[in-house]
Every structure is written in C-alpha cells, then in structure tokens.
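help with this:

***
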Amino acid sequence: MNTRIATAVMLTSALALAACQKKAPEELPPAPEATAAPAPTPTPTGPAVGSMEHFIEAVGRANTVVYFDTDRYNIDAEDSAKLQTQAQYFSQYSNVTFTIEGHTDERGTREYNLALGERRANAAKNYLVSLGIPASRIRTVSYGKERPVALGSNEAAWAQNRRAATVTIN
C-alpha cells in the first residue's frame, strides 16, 4: 500500500509541475540599440597635482629651498627668484596648500635656533603672500637645528642647513 501512495504522490507532483511550466511569449522584446562606448578617460601618467613630486617637477628641486646667511632671515635676490617661481606654481594650482619649514645649522642654543627657523619660514611666507598667495594656504613650522640635511661641523654643511624648505601638503 505504501508503494501505491508513493507512486500516486509522485504522479501528482509531476502533473503539478508540468502544469506550472512557463510558456514562451508570443512576441519577443526588441533587441537593445547599439550605443557607442564612452571614450575612455585618459589616466594621468605623471605625479598627482599638488604632490611633492609634481611641485618639484614643475619648479625644479633647486627652487623648493631658499638658503640664508649665518644668523640671517632676509630674502635676497636669489631667494626672491626662487619664491617667485613657487608663487607661479601656487597661483596656477590654487587648491594646493603647503608648509614652509624653517631650519638652522647646529650652532647656537635649541631655543635660539627654533626662533631663527621660525623667522626664516615666516620671511619666505611673507614674501609669497606679497606675491598674492593667500596666507591661509601657507603653514609654517620651525625645526631649528633638529633636521639637518647635511651632517658635519663645517661651513659647507652649515650652509646647506640654513634654509626654508617648501613642502606641499596635498
């Protein structure tokens, strides 16, 4: 008796499934129209705008740093030419913000060198502001004698460390 019930259930299930079968539509929808693929966006091959690499590429590595005489923070003719080059870049890329780092050589006290580094950074900032760069885009920081680029206790090393370096933030 169990086999009869099982057979009946299977036949009923097969008939029910056959009754639920979908029929093909009488009319197919139209084929999609061919559209032209959008032109691929060119991928930039150079450094991102505002990156330090882009800044160096645009102004030249030598124009990212201004150097000072011993115990000085005045902008001379060579420094002003470098800062004018930087100002052209920052005028063209008005969304770029940056930091001017003030540095000193190893001579003098920590406190004196931090103050001198700050005066150097502010001198460069003030010059750029006088050329039309908004002060709100420029941050200054003094590292004093804490971050030398040249190690050594001689005039050549000291001259390389007395500087204001511009570093982009974006």
Residues 52-168 form a domain with the 60s Ribosomal Protein L30; Chain: A; fold (CATH 3.30.1330.60).
